[in-house]
């Protein structure tokens, strides 16, 4: 950098001072650069936190989906069993309609109960609340910091 010229009212980035007014405040460019560097680090940390929270929630969702799938399979098998069992075994002991109704209700109740348990477990999956909260806090911090940098810049104008 060239020697400091007292007539030059520009910023001295090496000394981080504003020449000409005798203050030792950091230059606006330096503050702004630091602000954006911190912002980048903060965004990276928020992304890492969001990934962690989403992984945890996906584990819960998988468990619920397995139960829903198992319930669906039983409901399907209940339909098949309805056709086979009702036709072959119960038609000889009771009226046809009563035999088919009993088989249908039994398999639907079992399959529905399992599917309901899976849906109930899936309802425990939530949005990444910790990430949302820290993003709100980060936004407030960024706003306050930027306002502070802006007020420092206007104070030196």
Task: Kindly describe this structure.
The protein is an all-alpha fold and 157 residues long. Helix 1 runs antiparallel to helix 2 and helix 1 (28-88) runs antiparallel to helix 3 (129-155). The protein has 3 helices and no strands. It is rod-shaped and about 95 Å long. The longest helix has 61 residues, at 28-88. The two termini are 24 Å apart.
Describe the structure using short key phrases:
single chain, 157 residues, mainly alpha, 3 helices, rod-shaped, disordered N terminus
Mean pLDDT: 76
Using only C-alpha atoms, the radius of gyration works out to 34 Å
Our count of helices gives 3
**Which regions have little confidence, pLDDT < 50, spanning 5+ residues?**
1-6, 8-18, 20-24
**Major sheet: size, sense and barrel closure?**
none
Please provide the ordered H/E string of secondary-structure elements: HHH
Helix/sheet category: mainly alpha
What is the terminal separation in angstroms? 24 Å
The proportion of residues in beta strands is under 5%
Number of strand segments: 0
Shape: rod-shaped
Share in helix: over 70%
């Amino acid at each position: 950098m060239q020697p400091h010229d007292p007539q030059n009212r520009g910023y001295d980035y090496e000394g981080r001072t504003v020449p000409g007014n005798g203050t030792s405040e950091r230059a606006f460019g330096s503050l702004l650069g630091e602000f954006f560097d911190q912002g980048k680090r903060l965004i990276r940390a928020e992304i890492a936190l969001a990934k962690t929270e989403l992984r945890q929630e996906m584990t819960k969702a998988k468990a619920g989906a397995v139960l829903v799938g198992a319930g669906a399979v039983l409901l399907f098998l209940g339909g098949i069993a309805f056709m086979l069992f009702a036709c072959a075994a119960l038609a000889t002991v009771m009226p046809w309609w009563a035999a088919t109704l009993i088989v249908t209700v039994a398999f639907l109740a079992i399959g529905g109960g399992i599917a309901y348990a899976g849906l109930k477990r899936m309802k425990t999956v939530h949005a990444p609340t910790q990430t949302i909260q820290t993003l709100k806090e980060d936004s407030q911090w960024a706003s306050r910091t930027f306002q502070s940098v802006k007020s420092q810049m206007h104070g030196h104008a």
